[in-house]
Design goal:
The complex is a heterodimer of chains A (346) and B (203). Chain A is mostly helical and 346 residues long. Chain A has 13 helices and four strands. In chain A, strands 1-2 form a two-stranded antiparallel sheet. In chain A, helix 5 (116-136) packs antiparallel against helix 6 (146-161) and helix 7 (168-185) packs across helix 13. The longest helix of chain A is centred in the last third of the chain and has 29 residues, at 280-308. Chain A is globular. The N and C termini of chain B lie far apart (38 Å). In chain B, helix 6 packs across helix 7 (131-138). Chain B has a seven-stranded mixed sheet, with helices on both faces. Chain B has nine helices and seven strands, in the order αββααβααβαβαβαβα. Classes of the chains: A mainly alpha (346), B alpha/beta (203). The A-B interface holds A 103-104, 106-107, 111, 113, 116-117, 119-120, 123-124, 316-320 and B 17, 19, 21, 151, 154, 157, 160, 162-167, 169.
């Protein structure tokens, strides 16, 4: 009897320990190692550039290069730490990131006194709730529907109850956009870990992530492609950019940058396809989709920042790089990536 | 008590996500009066928490007795940040708030005060009460340091109990002193301008 009660705990414990000792499957470990090596090389180059003469390189670009490398180190360390702790750790981690991003977003957008209680619900109750739902991953998959409904129905009601009609629609919309982009969309990234992914080998279906750890590699792949795509877009735009897409929103986003980044992301996707359930060509197509979503995220956030008259979220609060600046592309690509996999690979 | 005060600092950081900016001044344990704009109950706590540890231990926020002596929790919190409680209702002779402050400061402590008197709900700061002037007059050696607290009114506005954890800024400016022959009105409006300037520079 006692054994019967204890056995799930014992098995659970053993499973946890195995996860801890072997947090990644082999291909993922290799990919992470490769990224580490690249980051070490990047840091090294950054140091060299810092020391070399000022005339040869633009010091502002060198500084922003070094800044980016540093924030990648941080991102990489956080992501790996989360993945090592396990699925729950990763969900909590993304929850904290979403909370901070929404905090930046709301801080930047002016709200009125009457929004206070609605904002309390949104930041303190709904944001954690969404990630709890992702972690529970119940049969109804509530995390896919609850938050947009709360944002669309509860928030306007709460603001109306505060008895302040000034710019009512605008205020509701701001909070709604904040929740949907920073919290709802981003929550699809850790939700990837809970998908049962199937691959088709010789006409028969096979469960791809049967050993519990492969999906961590998939999440790492996704974050890696979005981040590299950001840089590729910037790089290609600087190199061959001619046609600015929306000059009143952002002058550094060019058609050439987007196309160049999509093409090189496709190559990278195919190159890293061994950590994913995708074939070469599938990985390439999916990387292009991620690339375009990343562009959408970047240009949307640029528009919001331009509207508010801030250059980036980092300068809003001095001393820390704005999280929202780093994850805008991630937010937009996560739900699309999730649904592509759910529709075609489960 | 040490534990409570550490917890308070952590809580202040989590709730208000403050960033501290020292502008034309540096942290120092010399005796100072930090004077700031006042929009929220959190103001005193956040400014106190934003100071470096060694400065914080020698700095006492001045707070209203009627609010902070209500209930066990508030009393405990007030003593954890070593608040100097002032009775706003009953001002006695020889026991005026300024005298009390000077006595409690001794030659050791710095104070945090809010010269607007009570929490402001309007865009512009209220006129300053005269306490700052008398402090400056009686203790000309004190550095009077202007501080601008940004966004606190959105985190915990007047009349609300639950805070919304947004991000805030603490800007600490260059000290001022009472000039020779300066009138009370001149000095108080100059002190107010010092905070307004910090706000405008930020934008």
């Amino acid at each position: 009897m006692l054994l019967k009660i204890l056995s799930p705990f014992v098995f659970g414990f053993l499973e946890q320990t195995r996860d801890f000792i072997l947090p990644f499957d082999e291909p993922t470990a290799w990919l992470i190692a490769a990224v580490m090596v690249l980051l070490i090389i990047g840091s090294f180059i950054g140091k060299l550039l810092e020391r070399s003469s000022e005339e040869r390189f633009n010091s502002a670009i060198v500084r922003s290069f070094n800044q980016r490398i540093r924030s990648w180190w941080l991102m990489c360390a956080i992501l790996i730490a989360g993945l090592v702790i396990g699925k729950t750790g990763t969900v909590v981690l993304f929850g904290l990131i979403a909370f901070w991003a929404l905090r930046e977003f709301i801080t930047m957008t002016p709200t009125r006194r009457g929004d206070h209680r609605a904002l309390f619900w949104v930041l303190v109750v709904f944001t954690p709730l969404q990630f709890v739902l992702v972690g529970i991953h119940d049969d109804h998959q509530l995390f896919k529907v609850i938050l947009p409904l709360l944002a669309a129905l509860f928030v306007p009601t709460r603001i109306a109850l505060a008895n302040d009609e000034k710019r009512y629609l605008e205020r509701s919309a701001k909070i709604l956009i904040g929740i949907l982009i920073c919290v709802y969309a981003l929550s699809f990234a850790p939700a990837l870990l809970y998908l049962d992914i199937k691959t088709f080998v010789d006409g028969s279906e096979e469960l791809w992530n049967d050993n519990n750890n492969k999906e961590k590699g998939l999440l790492f792949f996704f974050v890696l492609i979005t981040q590299l795509n950001d840089v590729l877009q910037f790089g290609w735009g600087k190199l061959i950019g001619r046609n600015v897409i929306a000059d009143r929103i952002n002058t550094s986003r060019t058609l050439e940058g987007v196309i160049g980044a999509a093409a090189s992301s496709a190559l990278l996707g195919a190159l890293f396809s061994w950590v994913t359930p995708f074939a070469f060509w599938q990985a390439a197509v999916i990387a292009v989709v991620i690339s375009i979503c990343g562009f959408a995220g970047g240009i949307t956030m640029s528009a919001i920042k331009r509207d508010r008259g801030v250059k980036d979220f980092g300068t809003l609060i001095q001393g820390h790089a704005g999280i929202l600046d780093r994850i805008d592309s991630l937010c937009f690509a996560a739900p699309v990536f999730y649904f592509v996999i759910e529709i075609f690979f489960t | 008590m040490q534990l409570t005060s550490k917890l308070l600092v952590a809580a202040a950081k989590v709730i208000s996500g403050y960033t501290v900016r020292w502008k034309d001044s540096t942290p120092d344990t010399c005796q100072r009066i930090y004077f700031a704009n006042h929009t929220s109950h959190l103001d005193g706590l956040v400014l106190w928490a934003g100071l470096p540890n060694h400065v914080r231990q020698l700095t006492r926020p001045v707070a209203a007795k009627d609010y902070w002596e209500k209930g066990w929790l508030r009393r405990h919190v007030a003593s954890a940040f070593n608040a100097l409680l002032i009775d706003r209702r009953e001002v006695k002779v020889h026991q005026s708030p300024v005298d009390l402050m000077i006595r409690e400061m001794d030659d050791k402590y710095s104070l945090i005060i809010f010269p607007e008197g009570s929490r402001n709900t309007k865009e512009e700061m209220n006129k300053f009460k005269s306490g700052l002037y008398y402090l400056a007059k009686k203790r000309p050696d004190l550095e009077l340091v202007p501080v601008y607290l940004d966004n606190m009114n959105r985190i915990l506005p007047r009349g609300e109990v639950l805070p919304v954890p947004l991000l805030s800024n603490i800007t600490i400016g260059a000290p001022i002193w009472l000039e020779h022959g300066e009138s009370k009105q001149q000095f108080l409006s100059r002190a107010r301008e010092a905070i307004i300037k910090l706000r405008d520079d930020e934008e």
